[in-house]
Design goal:
It comes from Halobacillus halophilus (strain ATCC 35676 / DSM 2266 / JCM 20832 / KCTC 3685 / LMG 17431 / NBRC 102448 / NCIMB 2269) (Sporosarcina halophila). By secondary structure, the protein is mainly alpha-helical. It has helices spanning 7-18, 33-47, 57-66, 68-71, 94-111, 129-146. It is built from six helices and no strands. The two termini are 19 Å apart. The model has no long low-confidence stretch (mean pLDDT 95).
């Protein structure tokens, strides 16, 4: 599984983000491209420990068992439910959101695994830094594929 902490995969993700444009259309889902970038940026805040959403009851019940979905090789399902605090429905500026996400990915990668959040994922619970690295790559890959890059 690809890991965002490996510079090769960070560079790949950053290049794919650069290939997006304001007219990029989703293959599934309700978010436009600017909202998707803001969503991914908000997710980075969770992985970096800047945002600490509470664990939901469903995550407390099944999150530990479902945890491998986050970091295994199987692609994420289309239209999966998301963490409520990072569901973006408001209009966003494409250029600002793209640059913000790129900078967060660069900082996350440079800070390394030791700087990963020790706060539990709101659904899956406690993750190792390796699981965060793989899951972060997988989440970004999922949304970039959603917009054809």
């Amino acid at each position: 599984m690809n890991n965002i902490f490996e510079i090769t995969y960070t560079d790949e993700i950053l290049n794919r983000i650069e290939n997006l444009n304001i007219d990029s259309q989703p293959k599934w889902g309700k978010m436009d491209v600017s909202q998707m970038l803001a969503h991914c940026s908000a997710f980075q805040d969770i992985a970096m420990g800047y945002s600490l959403p509470p664990r939901g009851w469903l995550g407390l019940l099944v999150g530990r068992v479902a945890k491998p979905i986050f970091y295994n090789d199987k692609p994420l399902d289309h239209n999966m439910s998301t963490i409520p605090t990072i569901l973006i429905t408001s209009k966003r500026d494409f250029d600002i959101e793209r640059e913000k996400l790129k900078q967060k990915i660069i900082i996350f990668q440079k800070n390394g695994q030791e700087a990963c959040a020790d706060h539990p994922h709101p659904f899956f619970g406690k993750l190792t830094s390796e699981q965060w690295g793989k899951g972060t790559y997988k989440h970004l890959d999922h949304h970039l594929k959603q917009f054809g890059v």
